[in-house]
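Researcher: Predict the fold of Imidazole glycerol phosphate synthase subunit HisF.
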Amino acid sequence: MIAKRIIPCLDVKNGEVVKGTNFVGLRSMGNPVEMATLYSQNGADELVFLDISATNEGRNTVVEMVENTAKHVFVPFTVGGGVSTIDDVTRLLKAGADKVAMNSAAVRNPSLITESASRFGSQCIVVAIDAKKSEDSTWHVMTHGGRKDTQINAVEWAKKAEKLGAGEILLTSVDTDGCKDGFDLALTKAIVDVVDIPVIASGGCGKPEHFADVFKETGVSAGLAASIFHEGAFTIKEVKADCLNRGVNIREC
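Model: Structure tokens for Imidazole glycerol phosphate synthase subunit HisF follow.
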């Protein structure tokens, strides 16, 4: 059985790690390279950087940050935010990222998924899906930092993304993001059950047992969190110890 992964997420804005609730109310948490280095040294299986203001501000992800991170971090890391062309994907991978995540651009131009996967391999291409519960009880894909409702069914979009060549899905619940009450198990299970590629669950983790819950209740491959790590509430080691105690197959620190 493949071990489950614990992934700290660093949302970056203006060169600083930030965190909010339901994608708003952002507050500064620290330097992204320094924080990434610390997580890498303390048991993170992977890392994710998301330049959350890149699409709204119409700019590219800061390549310099990626280059600096690659010099200090020795676990795989994914970078997303403002990725809109194959040149953006190329630039980030050359700078040292192991994978590139795309959200708004993939929705706007689905062929970018196929073009990127064909050139670099599906293992490098992550489709980020920010999903929010709609009035009809389905989940809609949200873009532009969770601000724009595309009216696209998130479950159907996940299936399409896989067919287009995505190698992994980073699934974030806009409804539970930053709330610390646990991952959105219903949303996560709905997505995991219709795709064969790995899915990373994101949004809502507030304590170690939330990781074990999402691993045991769904077929998700990894759990991603920000607040509990950035605020020092729990360490990666404590999260992994709890998962092991609850029977989850996970890499020890």
